[in-house]
Structure formats: C-alpha cells, structure tokens
Fold this sequence. Notes:
Layout: E1 16-17, E2 20-26, E3 30-35, E4 43-51, E5 56-65, E6 68-88, E7 91-109, E8 116-124, E9 127-135, E10 141-150, E11 157-169, E12 187-196, E13 201-213, E14 226-236, E15 241-250
Antiparallel strand pairs: 1-2, 2-3, 3-4, 4-6, 5-6, 6-7, 8-9, 8-15, 9-10, 10-11, 11-12, 12-13, 13-14, 14-15
Amino acid sequence: MARHVRQVLDDQNEFVxxxxxxxxxxxxxxxxxxxxxxxxxxxxxxxxxRARTQPYQLRRGTMKSGHEIVWDQxxxxxxxxxxxxxxxKGVIYEVNNWWGQRDHSWGIRAHxxxxxxxxxxxxxxxxxxxxxxxxxxxxxxxxxxxxxxPSDGSEPISIIDFRHDLHWRDVSGAEVSYxxxxxxxxxxxxxxxxxxxxxxxxxxxxxxxxxQRYSRPDNRTESTLGGGLSEMTVRTSDGSVGTAIYEITGxxxxxxxxxxxxxxxxxx
Length: 268
C-alpha cells in the first residue's frame, strides 16, 4: 500500500496526487484510474471503470459520544466492470471484465473511536448489494442503509432491514474469537439477511479470507483498528453465486471485537 498527499487549494475537483490521477470520462458511467510508474508506488496501472448499475446515495449518518461527534458522513457507491492493465515488478497483468465497486465517502470518521462498522459490497449477475451498518458495543444499531442495484440499470431498491450472523475462522476453518488483535483469525464466514423496500428478502451465505487486515503485528497501539477486508464467495437464497468484499472493523463489539482497544468509545 502507498499513500500520496498534496495540498488542496482552489483545485479540489482536480483528482491528481503524486503518480495517481482519476479521470471522469463520463459522469457516473465511466472513470479512468491511472498510476504512473514511480518510485513512490510499487505498481502502475491504467484501468477503466464502466458502470453496470445506477449509483446509490446513502442518507447521511452520524454518531456521538456525549456532545462529541465520532462519525458524521455521506456516502455513495456504484457497481461496475473494470478493464485495463496493471504492472508489478515488470510483469503486466490483464484486467478483463472484473466486477467491482466504486465507493466514495466524505465527512468525519474518527476510526479509533468507532465500536463497529460493517461494509458489504456483493457482486451478483443480477446486480449489486451494498450495505453500510454501524453498531454500539452491545450490538444496538446506530445506522443501516444500502440497496440492491439491478445490473439492467433500473432504479436501486433500498434496504429496510439487515441482520448478520458472521464469525471469524482460524486456519482450519473452525470458528474462533477475535480476542484483542485477531492473531488466530484467517477468514470469515456466515450469513446475512437483507430485506428490501417492497418486501423482498435475500439471504446470503458467504465464506472467505483476509484481503487486508488492519491489525498487524508490527503496528499495534491502543487505537489500532480491528478486523479488516475479506475476499468472499457468496451464494444467495435463490441460488445466485457471486463475489464480495466484506469489511468488519472497529474497536469494541460483543461479537466481533470482545476486548476493547480504543478510548472514549460511544457506549450507546
């Protein structure tokens, strides 16, 4: 991973920083991502996103601890197909019709004080399911929003209810507690149940492995984020098969992060 920084003045719509540039080829339909060859980045790439669903704008969400704002953000996402190439250590890799999602959020998010957030990006032939869910340590819900966005380009359908029963797995596939830093965690599995506006219910079984864990042995402090991103294979209750990224992260939650790490956490 690499981080590139520049000062923003009156050019906040110029999406260029270091070797990275983002070109809006056609608003909400085509976006081109370029990373030039540079010592600042371990890869270079030229990849284009083409929308396969309409975008979905989530409602604004917020969470406080007393009078202090811990989280207050807006968010949008959209599923698409990626094509192009990337280069790593001189080897060129082709990206051919990869399903994926672009995701943009803005606002306040004090990661070290968030008990739990869960972000699901599920790609299916029929369309995309996107979920954004926040909870207090005891499991009380702060916020849930998301949608099913059909791949035929029709209007996204909002999620009106969401239930989850996921668990961490060890190297053998057995269920394991995260404890404080997830040292024994190698994967994630379980079920989520989604109810759409209009009454349609979708049950999703998933299993997978780390894509990016946030708690590393060489970087652990009281504010170290738990969890991370997991690459998942999914199957829905109507037999549809697809892929997903599940993000489960936070500092303190009775099910996913039983040992608190951060300070001044919202209690609910």
